[in-house]
Specification:
The chain is mostly beta strands. It contains 1 helix and 11 strands. It has one helix at about 110-115, and strands at about 5, 10-15, 20-25, 30-40, 45-50, 55-60, 70-75, 80-85, 90-100, 125, 130-134. Strands 2, 4, 5, 6, 9, 10 and 11 form a 7-stranded mixed sheet that branches. Strands 1-3-8-7 form a 4-stranded antiparallel sheet, with no helix packed on it.
């Protein structure tokens, strides 16, 4: 199983920025769906966005659109989450998840995985904490 490790979390003031990283132990498939989720205390898990590493196609939740950017470095098996204009409501534990495109379905399958009630990603990271103070 592929192991995922997040890093880059920390504490910042509202309006500040952070860049999170998610590194996979290996890349099994040519293309992968790599997504970011977050969970605040007392709230359900929320999808942040994803990137399809083959084409670089991305998708973002409305709550972060225009403020967050997901990118990847395929050579390093790493995906990044650049977070700008942070708000106190962004405070949460952030997790990355990955699923290989075994059937070469393309970026469309990422959306189906991302919006599912119980996203069936094969690998999940341990999470990194982001705290935004007012």
């Amino acid at each position: 199983q592929v192991q995922l490790v997040e890093s880059g979390g920390g504490s910042v003031q509202a309006g500040g920025s952070l860049r999170l990283s998610c590194t996979a132990s290996r890349s099994t498939y040519t293309s992968n769906c790599m997504a970011w989720f977050r969970r605040a205390p007392g709230k359900e898990r929320e999808g942040v966005g994803y990137i399809y590493t083959g084409s670089g196609s991305t998708y973002y939740a409305d709550s972060v659109k225009g403020r967050f950017t997901i990118s990847r470095d395929n050579a390093k098996n790493t995906v990044y989450l650049q977070m700008n204009s942070l708000k106190p409501e962004d405070t949460a534990m952030y997790y990355c998840a990955a699923e290989g495109d075994y059937y070469n379905r393309g970026s469309g399958y990422c959306y189906n995985l991302f919006v599912a009630d119980d996203p069936a990603f094969s690998s999940w990271g341990q999470g990194t904490q982001v705290t935004v103070s007012s």
